[in-house]
Amino acid sequence: EADMRADLEKVLIPEEELQAKIRELAAEIDRDYEGRELLLVGVLKGAVMVMADLARALHTPISMDWMAVSSYGSGTKSSGVVRILKDLDADIMGRDVLIVEDIVDSGLTLSWLRSNLESRGPASLEVCTLLRKPDAAKIEVGVRYIGFDIPNEFVIGYGLDYSERYRNLPFVGTLAPHVYGGSGEQEA
Ligand code: PRP
Ligand code: MN
Ligand code: MG
Fold it and tell me: Which cofactors does the annotated protein need, by name (predicted)?
């Protein structure tokens, strides 16, 4: 069966709710950055969908840049040691920077990224994430804009993958355990 929807357990956040939340976040960001110009930094690949929809919902003038990072360490668990696979094209010194993420899980990726970008001297640095899993947090990271807090379940869709699949689902759902053979706890 090639239908990826057959691998779903349930829809956690339907498309309309995601889009409504993104419009809310965009309105909040527009208010906070009034009169300024923003550099959105998307974290490949998961943030692609949020970035595309958030950018289109904003009235604030923006540029887009992208980073690709990968965690070192054994297994699939995020270790907190991060390697840059693709760095920013732009110099962010003196700029207002907003990191855009799909999900903050353990927080290790974002914590590293935040201090890495902070060291480059931006005028301001904030984070916007669509999803956050408070029960999975291993480190506290300052996140200014949060779409939804979700339970510690294996989620896919709207940028989020399992083995690179399911990113193109327009909603966020949970994967049926038979697909990944796991306990339901997501590994980064
Ligand atoms: C996922 C997700 C976040 C990160 C969160 O990315 O998109 O970037 O993990 O995990 P953490 O809070 O535990 O560090 P992943 O490394 O799977 O790469 P991807 O975006 O290409 O899927
Ligand atoms: Mn990611
Ligand atoms: Mg992933």
Answer: Mg(2+)
Residue 185 has pLDDT above 50, yes or no: yes
pLDDT tens-place string over residues 36-49: 999 999 999 999 99
> Distance from the CA of 160 to the center of ligand 1, in angstroms?
8
If one residue of 70, 72, 78 were mutated to test the ligand 1 pocket, choosing by the most ligand atoms within 8 A of its CB, it would be: 78
ipTM score of complex: 0.98
Residue 35 has pLDDT above 50, yes or no: yes
Helices (H), the chain: 15-32, 48-57, 108-118, 177-180
75-126 per-position pLDDT tens digit: 555 667 899 999 999 999 999 999 999 999 999 999 999 999 999 999 999 9
Determine the Cα–Cα distance for residues 156 and 116; give it in Å rounded to an integer. 27
165 half-sphere exposure, CB direction, 13 A CA radius? 12
Residue minimizing CA distance to atom 10 of ligand 1: 105
Kindly report the protein residue whose alpha carbon is nearest to atom 3 of ligand 1. 103
For the chain, the domains span 17-151
